Amino acid sequence: MTDTPTDASAPPKPRNLFSALELDPRLLGMIGAFVVICLIFNFLTDGRFMTPRNIFNLTIQTASVAIMATGMVFVIVTRNIDLSVGSLLATCSAIMAMTQTWLMPDWLGLGLNHPATMPVAVLVGILAGFTIGAFQGWLIGYLTIPAFIVTLGGYLVWRNVSWHLTKGQTIGPLDENFQLFGGINGTLGETWSWVFAAVAIAVSFFALFRSRRAQVAHEFPVKPIWAELVIGAIIAAAILGLVAILNAYEIPTARLQRLYEARGQVLPAGTIEGYGIPISVLVLIVIAIIMTVVAQRTRLGRYIFAAGGNPEAAELAGINTRLLTVKVFAIMGVLCAISAIVASSRQTFHSNDIGTLDELRVIAAAVIGGTALAGGLGTIYGAILGALIMQSLQSGMAMVGVDAPYQNMVVGSVLVLAVFIDIVYRRRTGDKT
Amino acid sequence: MTSPLVEMRDMQKSFGGIKAVDHVTIDLYPGEVVGVLGHNGAGKSVLLKMLSGALQRDGGEIYINGQKATINNPRDARNYQIETIYQYLALADNLDAASNLFLGRELVSPLGFVDDAQMEAETRKILARLNPNFRRFHTPVAGLSGGQRQSVAIARAVYFNAKILIMDEPTAALGVQETRMVAELIDQLKSEGIGIFLIDHDIHQVKLLCDRANVMKNGQLVGTVKVDDVTEDDLLGMIIAGKCPASAIPGPGALQTA
Ligand SMILES: Nc1ncnc2c1ncn2[C@@H]1O[C@H](COP(=O)(O)OP(=O)(O)OP(=O)(O)O)[C@@H](O)[C@H]1O
Ligand SMILES: [Mg+2]
């Protein structure tokens, strides 16, 4: 029980700037990889990769997979897997499409683009995702059928339930308000984007301050104050930078004209407006925050990680691991529904093949983001970064002119390589978990 | 004498054809340490797991303070202030000491969020008492030594004010110094009026720590003895051959002397 001197509770003298900041090396590694990918493609495309327009597109292309990847973290952390997310997305999309093109306008006689249509469709979709997810979780948790089998079955069932509901037809166009979730058709605009940035920075600083105050109150060792300030500055710069870029992508004049006309105004000559933050990206950010809080600050999150680390210990501690499985899959189902909103509104219609192969992308994003298939380990931000890295690889290669089959070969190899690097890293640091 | 703190009457549990626990009756008084001995696979862990709620009994009754108790899962057991230190340490390897100590009973802020700072502070306090060398509060317990992990498991039992403590080979993974620490702790808890069931293979230690001992063989109770009335050889004879010395209260598993 004797400890090595490095374990002393007195704060160790920071050896250098990085150790004083106490940043997660895995996070830094992923950000580093992402930056390298961006720079390489930017070079290969003569600067077209890092334009506001392309970065804007990258964010809206990533949103749908990233939203589901946050849920996949919980699924994999509890030593399960979900192969049905792409199909579940399709079923939710079909149900929502039918709600807004048939149920609300015709059956209830509210006509097209009624203000109630969007919220009702969203609610119906989320309810469907929740129910299907919880049902699959019940099969896994209470009937103890392996998750791989349940969701493999679900993969076939829900893909074709979607086909059955729509009789294999494409349904569209979707409700106008619903389409706001699609990315380019719904953005905050410049002013509100800056407001969002200001609020986000304020909240971040408040969170940093509160956590430091709690540590000081209990007389725990804390980082030097300058280190806190540097971290705060990095966060602020990242938020401001992202908003600046998204605001710099300008709305084409013709489109701006239509927007003003729709509002009954005349476009003043020479007006320039940027898109700002897409609503789909806003949805992703909100989900990322909620899921992170659930993971780190709630009992549910604690139990998810405990059950993943040692299911027997969790049960002996009085945790109902069966119900926990139901909850995890219900969350996954809700996130599939939200992704269905983003994905279907982005293409402005529901199609039969929506979400095809998403299960693989979502699992890959979580795994590239450092979620261990052995369970007990994973982060929400990692999964989102994983989704972003995969999407930038794919878009970058498309811009360079690499054919789709080769793109898939690269993405597949990167997945395996990323996991290998993670294994080597853990072996080096002696980090068993 | 007062009514026993715990009385397990006629407990039974089988797995398939194997009678792991076969009509066993034992009891425990406040401030008493009662040993449960027997060869490997005798049924010691299974017997006490029925008390801790980890296993559901096939038959038999449990009385706590003379009242019939319903214990069907670990949560029920905790409600009776029964805490267990399991033979195979029940810790979540990927979580730190505080998260493990409070697992299932997290301290939460008024808004219902887990209060990690508060839990860490409490963990530091209790571990400072049990194991002053313990410093690694921020690493997952997978990275701790066997003794450090044991400290966390014991701290959990002590922190939540156990009335009844089950220790299943608590010193099996420990060095000499740590074993002495656990022995001192057992004496201290005993003096606070806590009843302790102790499973241990070390006869010497049983003689030292326990007031009474129950010996099991093939799922059956060989007999119950006051440890001061018997020699270590007597205990060994009970464990190996099922032979009861004269001072023992023989159980159904005792060797029938012709
Ligand atoms: N979950 C289980 N499923 C099936 N059989 C079990 C289970 N748990 C215990 N057994 C069986 O019950 C019997 C008693 O086991 P138990 O764990 O109580 O032994 P023990 O006395 O604690 O032994 P040890 O000293 O090795 O810890 C053994 O034959 C064991 O194989
Ligand atoms: Mg045992």
Structure, described:
- The complex is a heterodimer of chains A (433) and B (258).
- The longest helix of chain A is centred in the middle third of the chain and has 29 residues, at 189-217.
- Chain A has 16 helices and no strands.
- Chain A is an all-alpha fold and 433 residues long.
- The two termini of chain A are 21 Å apart.
- Chain A has a domain at 44-186 and 278-429: Orthogonal Bundle (ABC transporter involved in vitamin B12 uptake, BtuC), CATH 1.10.3470.
- With 258 residues, chain B is an alpha/beta fold.
- Chain B folds into two domains: 1-81 and 162-258, P-loop containing nucleotide triphosphate hydrolases (Rossmann fold), CATH 3.40.50.300; 88-154, no CATH class.
- Chain B contains eight helices and eleven strands.
- Chain B has helices at 44-52, 74-79, 97-101, 116-130, 146-159, 176-191, 203-209, 232-241, and strands at 6-15, 18-28, 33-38, 59-64, 67-69, 82-85, 164-168, 195-199, 212-217, 220-226, 249-250.
- In chain B, the strands form two sheets. Chain B has a seven-stranded mixed β-sheet, with helices on both faces. In chain B, strands 2-1-4-5 form a four-stranded antiparallel β-sheet, with helices on one face.
- In chain B, helix 4 crosses helix 5.
- The mean pLDDT of chain B is 90.
- The A-B interface holds A 1-3, 7-9, 214-215, 217-218, 220, 293, 297-299, 301-303, 305-310, 312-319, 376-377, 430-433 and B 52, 54, 73-75, 78, 84, 86, 90-95, 99-100, 103-106, 108, 112-114, 116-118, 120-121, 131, 133-137, 140, 142-143, 145, 147-148, 151, 175, 177-178.
- Bound molecules: adenosine-5'-triphosphate and magnesium ion.
